[in-house]
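Batch manifest, entry 17 of 40.
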Amino acid sequence: MIADDAIWHGSGRAQERRAKLALDQTALALGGLSLNHWIIPIFTAILCVMFARWIAPARLISWAACVVLSTIPLAVVSWRFRKRGEGIDHWRGWVAAAATSYFIFTAVWSSSGFVLWVPHSDLNHMLVLLMMASTLAGASALVSASRPMAYVMFATCGTVGVLVPLQEGGVIYDGLSLLALCYVCYIFFMWRHMHATACDMLLLRDDKNDLIAALAGAKTESDQARLRAEAASLAKSQFLANMSHELRTPLNAILGFSEIIETNAAHGDTVKDSEYAGLINKSGQHLLTLINDILDLAKIEAGRFVISEAEFDLERLIDEAGELMAPKAEVRGCRLAKEVAADLPHLYADERAVKQVLLNLLSNAVKFTPKGGMVTCFARVESDGRIALGVRDTGIGIAEADRALVFQKFGQGRHDIVSADRGTGLGLPIVKGLVEAHGGAIALESEITRGTTVTVRFPAARARPARQRAKAAV
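Output type: structure tokens
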């Protein structure tokens, strides 16, 4: 009973357990009474036959009809209770409904102690008292889980059992009434133990279910962690495979051309030396770009990337990025274009980071756009005030299965495989990290053979009216 009292007087988390326990107790008690609707009419018919020698048929039939009708509310509540679902809403109402319907039944059934009692008939009295004692013992076991229903049963059956012998009077019947009171107290004592056992059983069952759910959740988390570890290991292997080529190529070029310069130093061919020095510088710049990309991604993932915010003209930045990518686009045979809204405000962000975003997006678009294609850089203000910046191309497109992959570290889709310039798989993850560091979001739309559009959106709070910039310059 201590555990039960703690539940009923607890707070916070205990309130939820209180409701759950009360519903479980009610369900267990109603389950014990599930056969009442069929057995009680049979019992009533047998009693009517037994007491027909003392009671008039009309009186017996009236009492039997009342008993049968009293089982209907309890049957309806039991049926609706089973159909209610698993929620704990309105639990007080369900408990009250069960107790009320059970009170109606026990009150009518207990009336048999007065209806079937015939003065000056010891056999009749013995049968009535035996029936009341059996009812009390059986009902206390059936509804032992539910405290409200048990209280109802003791209040009706117990009270009638004590009062019935007093109808006859005399020392013997007064003694029987006292014995009935002791019997009721004893049954009540036994009920308390059964009730405590039922509560402990229900609480243990709930704890077991919670433990199973916790173990299932832990297993799921463990499986997810294992999958993430396997994915990280695979990404590391892919990274090493990609980088082994990307790093060796410029390093081999640097070593090879520097060796040639050293070997030809005595010949004094300055034209060749200048050409080789240019190739060494180009390879060194490529190597530096790779290392910077790796370091930037590492800083972003570690949360150590610091943005240096300032207001700048986004259209100017688009023009600068286009000029830097123009030679590569010319080599690939594709055209560059821009679409900038006339009312485009200035952007308050890290200019270097935004420029890197643009260059990465343009580089990817040019890389996967065939000869004669178009790469368009666009910027606009959306209806919610956010600034949308992106690149649209008419390239080979990205399959739906690969669209999530391209934002993962070193992720490459099948569109990389068909291109001779496969890249490292760092561009879009860096773009995603830089945009999210500004509180923005990135979206990708693509269709095979029709092209790809990558859009980054900066929060409306980062927009600055262009006229303020102009006045500040004055």
